Amino acid sequence: MDLILRDARLASDATRLTDIGIAGGKIVAIAPRLAAEAETLDIGGRLVSAGFVETHLHLDKACILDRCQAEGDLGAAIREVTRLKAAFTAEDVYARARRTLERCILNGTTHVRTHLEVDPGIGLRGLEGVLPLVREYAWAVDLEICIFPQEGMLNNPGTEELMVAALKRGGNLIGACPYTDTNPHGQIDRIFALARELDVDIDMHLDFDLDADTMDLTHVCRRAEELRYGGRVAAGHVTRLSVLTPEGLAAAAARLRSAGVALTVLPSTDLFLMGRTGPNSGARGVTPAHHLLGHGVNCSLATNNVLNPFTPFGDGSLLRMANLYANVCRAASSAEIAECFAMITTRAAALVNARSYGLTVGNDADLVVLDCDSVQAAVRELAPVLYVFKRGRRTVTRSPAVLHRPP
Question: What pLDDT score does 282 carry?
Answer without folding.
Answer: 64
